[in-house]
Amino acid sequence: MKVTVNGTNILGMPLLGFPKIALPGVVGDLAVESFARARTASEQMTEALSETYSRNAGVATDYGLKVLEISHANTAFAFDLFAHLLGSGSASEVLTLSTERARKAFDQNKELWELGQRVATDMRGQVKKHVDRALHHAA
Fold first, then answer.
1. pTM for this structure?
2. Which residues pair with 14 in a beta bridge?
3. Tens-level pLDDT at each residue, the chain (139 residues)
4. Of 18, 55, 109, 113, which sits with the fewest C-beta atoms within 10 Å of its C-beta?
5. What CA–CA distance (Å, rounded) separates 66 from 108?
6. 8 A C-beta contact, residue 3 and residue 9
């Protein structure tokens, strides 16, 4: 609020005369303490994220390798099926081969699904553990 020369505000009302209390020691101590807590929490969260990302990178690598393995198996099957189709004398043989491959693909997809669930569960657990620890120390 703007103060005029005669000690009133711009509306002409006199200013209330509150005593000026110096609290720099108390306020300064609170600020230093709050800053220290914030710094500690920030360091803990940085450490937690670093550990979580490192751990999840390994699991994600496993997942990627499994996808490559399945892709390789699917490609090899496609060539085998094509070769059997060219040399096959009966539809029942092709059907049997296709059924076996479908069963194997189902098992591979199930394994990939379980690995994906492990990635998600592991990541959630790591983040939760570190956030809980950081919040506990900050309180």
1. 0.50
2. 8
3. 454 555 555 555 555 555 555 555 666 677 778 888 888 878 877 887 788 778 778 878 888 888 898 888 888 888 887 887 777 767 788 788 788 888 888 888 888 888 888 888 887 887 787 777 767 766 6
4. 18
5. 9
6. yes
d(CA 93, CA 122): 44
Which tokens in the block code for residue 60?
């994600």
CA distance 65 to 57: 12
Which class for 52: exposed (0-12), middle (13-18), buried (19 or more C-beta within 10 A)? buried
